[in-house]
Design brief:
The structure is a single chain. The protein is an alpha+beta fold. It has two domains: about 250 residues, Metal-dependent hydrolases (TIM Barrel, Alpha-Beta Barrel); about 80 residues, Immunoglobulin-like (Sandwich), CATH 2.60.40. The protein contains eight helices and 21 strands. The strands form three sheets. Strands 1, 2, 3, 4, 12, 13, 14, 15, 16, 17, 18, 19, 20 and 21 form a 14-stranded mixed sheet that branches. The protein binds zinc ion (2 copies). The site of one zinc ion has 5 residues, from loops.
Amino acid sequence: MADREYAGAIHVHTAFSDGGTPAEAILDVAAHVGLDFVVLSDHKTAGVRRAGLVGWHGRTLCLCGPEVGELRRPHFLALGLTDPESLEGLSPKAALEAAQNRGAHNFIAHPHAARLRGLQRKPVDWSDWTATAFCGIEIWSYVHDVFDRAVPWRLPLVALAPRRLITGPRPETLALWDRLGLSRRVAGLGALDNHAHMLLGLFEVYPHADVFETIRTHVVCPELPADGAAGAAAETALIDALAAGSAFVAFDAWADSSGFRFAAEGPGATLSFGQETRFAPGWHLHAQLPRPADLTILRDSLPVLSLRNTRTADLAVAGPGVYRLEARLNGRPWIFSNPIYFRP
Ligand SMILES: [Zn+2]
Ligand SMILES: [Zn+2]
């Protein structure tokens, strides 16, 4: 079956925890702006699932991925977890393992959280990398990217023009991702961590309609079951594709990234982002962008090909490594592919 591309938003808080908007209203907005899916992530609750909201809402698929972890402690998203309350009091590593044992697919949230330098808040970075019960990490988070530069004199921009503060994924997060990928596949997600509170009852901070236009994760997978009763099967299939890294992350407000592809062709086989194989001579990487941009292909964090203003790239694979692609559009961070892994 031919693959389809599904672009969606991940890590959105609703009124089931500390978000400012009821889940139903968020789903209406997601459908209105044309998202194919949205992962609703509330602190320590699967209220979205209990309310029967997982499944199709028009052409938008709602998934539930509770955010596990205590206030001002490390967090992870547990996609598919039905009972996050049961993890109360566990260490981050023990909670990861318990969630995985309950069938969840875990993704480390904001591994390097916003610094909020001028505001003296302590970051909630993930620190225990002896933990292995996760299939991916958030490589780029909208609110954390904006807040990372939220020194007091920039507060007008933080409030009114947050996109002007976007700098891209944190370099240490990308370096960490590349390092983790040396020993196993680790899927990269784009996240929002949006709460959309009302300020003084007058002004909505970061309205979902605006934020849904920014960082999207594009999943490439076989067509999801879409008939009315198929919501649970569609959720499972999409979570599996996210966990497999069959996806890329893009800031679609700069330009729609749909149609981007990064693949490898070799002796009798083709690989797409997220996949791995044993290295052998004769492999080539191919990239295709929906519009001209500046692209870089990296091998184990080091650039091995940089092209300006191009829509295609082709590179012979010189040896084992974690190969991924970054594209910038007019100097701004745009597309980040999941890696293709060539093992020694
Ligand atoms: Zn968090
Ligand atoms: Zn969050």
